[in-house]
Amino acid sequence: MSISGPDADTPLLAVSGLSAYYGELRALYDVTLSVRTGEVLSIIGANGAGKSTLLKSIVGMMNRGAAAHIQGDIEFAGRRIAGRATEDIVDAGITMVPEGRRLFARMSVEENLAAGAFLPRCRAGLRQRMDEIYALFPKLHERREQVVAQMSGGEQQMVAIGRALMSSPRLILFDELSLGLAPAVIEEIYRKVRTIHEQGVTCIIIEQDMRRALSVADRVCVMLEGSIVLSGRPAELSEAAITAAYFGQTHR
Ligand SMILES: Nc1ncnc2c1ncn2[C@@H]1O[C@H](COP(=O)(O)OP(=O)(O)OP(=O)(O)O)[C@@H](O)[C@H]1O
Ligand SMILES: [Mg+2]
Which of 91, 87, 58, 96 minimizes the C-alpha distance to 74? Predict the structure, then answer.
């Protein structure tokens, strides 16, 4: 007998039959995936597999202008979000830490964090939320006046994560979380992500490092040429099967 409520089986995020296009170029083919509340999902795949396009589709960045568009359905917490504006999707509770971080390089740490609280619902609690983020990243507090361009890659990644947290999301999408960072910095970033996850935030992480993707995730998806070609729990997937899926080889 289940002791859970009636919505226990409803995923937090449900993507179904999603296709994405950049003009004539089709970048996603009929992608279906779901993420439950509290899960960590890792997505791996070669360059150009469509990982960033999938995340951009979820946060409403593939429906700006005529060229880039999506087909299919995306539901978050039971509500349809496909085709909605990014601002509405952030308001609903999803934020992204984008590939390349996309910070305001000439602005300070604090100004970048404040930029993450652009929604009307964030204004009243902005100071308190910022203090919570400084508690998570004491280094950012020490350097709150510093211009972001003068910070290391790891510190900038922390600013990007802090900015994403400012809107108090229920789901965070991390694109290329550790790319280009030194091993010790990657360890530190992942410790922070673990804390964020323990605080109740569901996570989707795009990660180049296959071993790390497997070690942090409840479930892993492998993308190849715009499709999900393999998914499952890390314990159920062999490294050989993942490698074969990643490179598009038939696994025997
Ligand atoms: N702005 C764009 N305009 C046109 N085509 C694009 C654009 N962005 C991505 N593409 C194309 O869409 C496909 C998927 O790209 P995407 O960036 O989603 O891949 P990715 O898996 O994130 O790759 P990477 O590991 O290099 O970040 C690729 O063929 C890419 O060239
Ligand atoms: Mg990418």
Answer: 58
- Taking CA 89 as the corner, what is the angle to CA 84 and CA 92, rounded to the nearest 5 degrees? 125
Q: Which of 55, 66, 64, 54 is nearest to 84 (CA)?
A: 64
Pocket test for ligand 1, best of 19, 21, 24, 25 (most atoms within 8 A of CB): 25
Amino acid of residue 231:
S
Q: Which protein residues have a CB closer than 5 Å to ligand 2 (ion)?
A: 51-52, 99
Category of 154 on φ-ψ map: left (φ > 0), alpha (ψ -120 to 50) or beta = alpha
Angstrom CA distances, 138 to 141, 156, 177, 221, stand at 5, 14, 20, 33
Confidence of residue 249 (pLDDT cuts 50, 70, 90): confident
Q: Which residue has the tokens 């490179």?
A: 247
CB-CB contact of 233 with 221 (8 Å): no
**Among the atoms of ligand 1, which is closest to the Cα of residue 54?**
18
Q: What is the pLDDT of residues 10-63, one digit of tens each?
A: 899 999 999 999 998 999 999 999 999 999 999 999 999 999 999 999 999 998
pTM, full prediction: 0.93
Nearest-atom number in ligand 1 for the CA of 208 is: 25
* Span from the CA of 149 to the centroid of ligand 2 (angstroms): 22
Q: How long a stretch of residues is the chain?
A: 252
Long-range (24+ apart) CB contacts under 8 A made by 73-82 are 73/14, 73/15, 73/16, 73/17, 73/18, 74/13, 74/14, 74/15, 74/16, 74/18, 75/13, 75/14, 75/16, 76/12, 76/13, 76/14, 76/171, 77/12, 77/170, 78/7, 78/10, 82/18, 82/57
Ligand 1 atom 7: the closest Cα is on which residue? 22
